[in-house]
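Handout, page 2. Input:
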Amino acid sequence: MYRVLISDPLSEDGIRPLLDAEDVEAVMDPSLSHEELLEEISKSHALIVRSQTQVTREVIEHAPELKVIGRAGVGVDNIDLDAATEHGIVVVNAPDGNTISTAEHTMAMLMSLARNIPQAYHQLKQRKWERKKFVGVELKNKTIGIVGFGRIGMEVAQRAKGHRMNVIAYDPFLNQEKAEKAGVTHGTLQEVLQQADFLTVHTPLIEATKHLIDKEAIQLMKPGARILNCARGGIIEEDALYEAIKSGKIAGAALDVFEEEPAIDHPLLDLTEVIATPHLGASTVEAQENVATDVSFDVMELLRGGSVKNPVNMPSVSSEMMDKLFPYFQLSEKLGAFLSRVVNGTLERVSVYYSGELLDVDTMPLTRIAVKGILQRHIGNRVNDVNAFKTASDKGIVINEQKSTSTKGFTNLITVEIETDEEKRSIAGTLLNGLGARIVQLDQYSIDVVPDGNLIVIHHTDQPGAIGRVGSLLATHHVNIATMQVGRTNIGGEAVMVLTVDKEVDGDCHTQLTEIDDIKQVQCLTL
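Output:
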C-alpha cells in the first residue's frame, strides 16, 4: 500500500484516480503546521502540492520513504529540486492542464478591454446610464500581436481568428513554415509591436523576457494600441505602461498578473483605462481538475514502477556512469548556453559530437544538458535535464548525436552545432587536466576561453589597432578585461576576439563597441 500525502487543496474529482486506487492510501490535509508536515511526510511514499506547501530540504530529509513529489501546476519554485534529486526523489508537474483556461481568460480580457465592459458595469451598478462614455472598438479586422507562440499563444491565435482578427506572432522558436501551418503571420518582435492593435504576451518570465515590453518597445507600438498580460508579472515594465497610458500613447491594458502580488495598491489600478483580475488565468474548475488529474496519474505510475509523462528533475544514472559523466555536465551546458546566445534565427537542428574519452560512455545525458543550455535562453527553468528532448521536439527542433574518432589533438572533445533558418554555428570544448573546462573553438576559429562569467564576443576584420581600440573604449566605461583571446583564419581576414570582463557591459558601451572601425558584430553574454 502506497501512502500519498496531499498537503494543499486540490480538486477531489482531480485526485479521484488516487482515491479509487486499491493500492493507494490518499491523505489530504491542507492545514498541516510545519511540524505536522514533517511528521506526516516521514511515513509517506509520495507528496502532492500546489504552491502553498514549501518542500524544503528539511522536509525532504524527513522523508526516508518518499519516492515522488507531484506539483499540481507548472512552476516548481516551492520545491527544492537539488535536494529531491540528491535523495533520488522524482519531481513531476502538470504543464498542460491550464492551457485552455488561460487562453479563454485572455480572450475574455481582450473583449472586456475592447468594449469597456468592466467600467460600464461599475457605472451601472452605481445607477449611472452613460452609453456615450464607453464606446468601444470591434475586434474584426484588427491585428492581434502574440509574443510567445507556445501552447497558450497558439490557442489564443485560434480564438482570435474566430473573431476574424489578423494574427501576427513572434517566438524565438517560430519560423515562417510553422507560422503558415498555424495560419498566422510570422514576424520579428519589432514587427509584432509595430503592427499590433492588441498586444498579448505568453512567454515565461526569465532573464530574456524580464521587462521585454519596456518603454522602448511601447514607443514602437501604434498610438491607441492596447496591451494584455495573462502570463507572468514582470514581462511588461509596469512603470512604462503606466506612463504610456497616462500620455495617451496606449489606449488601455488588461492585466491578470503583476510583478508583485497581491497588487491591491498598484498605481495602474487607479487608471480607468486599465482592467485587472487577481491572477485568475488558471482558476477554472476544469483547469484545477486537469492539473490534479495529470499529476495524480504520474504519481501512481511512478510508485508502481512505470514511466511518467512530466518529470522535472534529472533522470537516474548509475553511479559508475555518473562518475564518468559528471565532470562534463557543466561543460556541456555552458557550450549550449554560449552558442544559443550568439546564433541568429529560429532554431531548427542541434547536433552534438563526441570524441576521445567519451566514445565508450553513454553520452545521452550530456546531450540533454547541452540542449537544455540552448533552450533555457528562451524558456528558462521550464526546460530541464529530463524534458529537454521533448521540449525541443515540441518546438520542431531536430536533435542529433554522433561520436567520432577525430579528437583534433584533445583527449576529449564535445562539439555543439546549431542550425537555424539563417545560419549554422558551432562551438567545441574540452576538459584540460588540472585546468578544467575550456572553449577551444568557435566556428572556424581556434581559441582558449574559460566558459564562465561575463563575456564579449566580437567579430572583426584583422587589422592593426583593433584590439587596442576595444580595450581603450572598455576602459572609458570602467570595464576591466580579465582575459582576451583572438582567433583568425588568415592575416587581414575575418577574425574573432573573445573577452572575459569583470562586469556586464551596459547598452551605451555595447553600442559604442559596434561603432568602432573594422568591428562587424558585438555580442555580450553571461555564463
